């Protein structure tokens, strides 16, 4: 199939899922066209069957807001015609599903029917999409999609609760290419980060308020009082500055490393002992899955789709959002003796197997095939 993939190219789960999906589909013989405003961060290699088409939005002083969805829908029309794309897969409803619908309508004028699959990722539903300013357009474009998927059962339920949805929503979870996280421990540069007796705790995100970054600092503060430890904070975003301030206030700056964005999270996870994800909302928690794939147990909140990923008492522990004391206690429980830690590491890896890329990507292929079949009827 010739598949057009629309996504956000930045650091963030939906862009990562879209990119990894495209790359895997290309390995399975499909022709992939990424259509977005920048080359996706995890898309390092373009090739014979992996292409990237940039959406340009020219600055025009008359516009207070530059019309990205207009430029995107025009680009989709051009690319579908030029590359004879069979199907579009848009990740994140806003504004991608809306732009795909417009492209579909424009192409119909030329006698071309391009179906589109929309994948809902989380904040497009739970935070932004359900805002009254966007809700009618989001509802409309979900209902007009030829197929809709959500990345967890929890997100499917949230979507059905928050919007008036007429379409069926299939659950296709996030997935992981286990080979990419299968480092031999001797490859790790652990010694550069911590002394032998120190445990390494890690968090990776885009540091938005929904990630409850300050909870992470507070949990770490509690843990390091009884267990020698370092905290690796990977990512950029609005909560970084307040987090650095809190570290200064608590006197732990020498124990906390702020990395900024990184393309080498597999290397960082390789030397990590524990991952923290205390989010306020999380439709799935891809970063937790990436941690588990590296054999890193997870202390998380029990919100949204996280319980579908992190198994209580097996791959880690889950607590109510904001329960810093319980999360700290559970972190110490895992870290305090080597046997327990090793068991949790093993369990985390086993849990990640459930989301192996080879099990999930065929589900998307089946959805494309079914969608194309239905369109021909
Ligand atoms: O939460 C983020 O950091 C980014 C966000 C996105 O839209 O890119 O991630 C969402 O999609 C991921 C991939 O499906 C999910 O694993 C994340 O849980 C989800 N984030 C939230 O729901 C907050």
TrEMBL record:
- The Glycosyl transferase family domain covers 195-350
From what superkingdom does this record's organism come?
Bacteria
Q: Do you know which Pfam families this protein is assigned to? A: Glyco_transf_4, Glycos_transf_1
> Where does the Glycosyltransferase subfamily 4-like N-terminal domain lie?
11-179
Coiled-coil spans are none
For biological process, the GO terms are: bacillithiol biosynthetic process
- From the UniProt record, which GO molecular function terms apply? glycosyltransferase activity
- NCBIfam families per the UniProt record, alphabetical: thiol_BshA (TIGR03999)
Instruction: Kindly provide the name given to this protein in its UniProt entry.
Output: N-acetyl-alpha-D-glucosaminyl L-malate synthase BshA
